[in-house]
Amino acid sequence: MGQRAWTAATVVVALLVAGCSDGGGERPRESAPPSPGGTGSPERLIPPGEPRDVTTGLGVPWSIVFLPDGAALVAERDSARVLRVEPDGATREAGEIEGVRPQGEGGLLGLAVAPESTGDTAVYAYFTSAEDNRIVRMPYDTEAGLGEPEIVVSGIPSASFHNGGRIAFGPDGMLYAGTGDAGREELARDTDSLGGKVLRMTPDGEPAEGNPFGNLVYSYGHRNVQGLAWDEEGTMYATEFGQNTYDEVNVIEPGGDYGWPEVEGKAGRRPYVDPVVEWTPDEASPSGAAVAAGSLWVAALRGERLWRIPLLGGGEVGDPEALFVGERGRLRAVAATPDGAGVWVSTSNLDGRGEPAPDDDRILSVPLTR
């Protein structure tokens, strides 16, 4: 920021706006030590390879999911298009989803693919409509593309900010969704509301057996969940935007209270579940997450970096490591490649808060080794 004098009122407004967004404002620091949160890494990590472009010229690619045949589907937030991207980068449209109403941080957000073991070729999408955020299911064929959407869940609170939007199938075969509080903090603590939660449901949108409150709610007290991932032990991780103090990575427990709006970061007191990692917003504004090569990989928007968090087992994590700081701009989605040898990462420089490079936005491939 500059050295000009601001009035107190202006400072308050600026802080409120920064706390309500995907992360805009000031540029990240060139290097930032990770905030305390890990328990130390067991060994020195081997650096990943340099990112390379898979495909370019995209418009705010919000989600990446791989298909059984090795291609990926990519959701563009504002155009409502779903693109099919081959491993060699060849890209074509798979369909445009009806009913998407992009506004602010809303639009076409998360995608999920039914587990291959089910034999179901359906694709699921989370998007902002004129009335709410909702999840739909669509048949998918490689040649014909996406079919007509069928509503699976509706009534998730929506707004210009804090829409959550990440969906993923867990190792139990259930569909999970990370939602936001839609700017209404009280929703996060209301276990009858779908806002500010991690939801767990059957593929048909019914409450999954064993859910702690008998409805779709799996955990609560969240502000804006945009990343979901599981490790090899089945431990579930979620990334969460804080307001002005701390962003978080949480290990998700059924019925867990993650504290918002009472606390941000590590409260150190019951009944709140403390995050395993906390960052300041200029280091993170964390969105997509994926597990690969023994680490959790988290895309940072305002932080303009890819975070690697070593997974030590039992929900314990090592010290976070910041990679590619400021090199590719805002990063949004992360997906592990089917062979586990890399991750694909999307930029989000055309979302109104970035500084686009020529041919942005893009999908990057980052090679990994253990």
Automatic annotation (TrEMBL):
Residues 60-353 form the Glucose/Sorbosone dehydrogenase domain. Residues 22-53, 347-370 are annotated as: Disordered. Coiled coil: none annotated. InterPro entries: 6-blade_b-propeller_TolB-like (IPR011042), Glc/Sorbosone_DH (IPR012938), Quinoprot_gluc/sorb_DH_b-prop (IPR011041). Residues 352-363 have a biased composition (Basic and acidic residues). PROSITE patterns: PROKAR_LIPOPROTEIN. This is Glucose/arabinose dehydrogenase, beta-propeller fold.
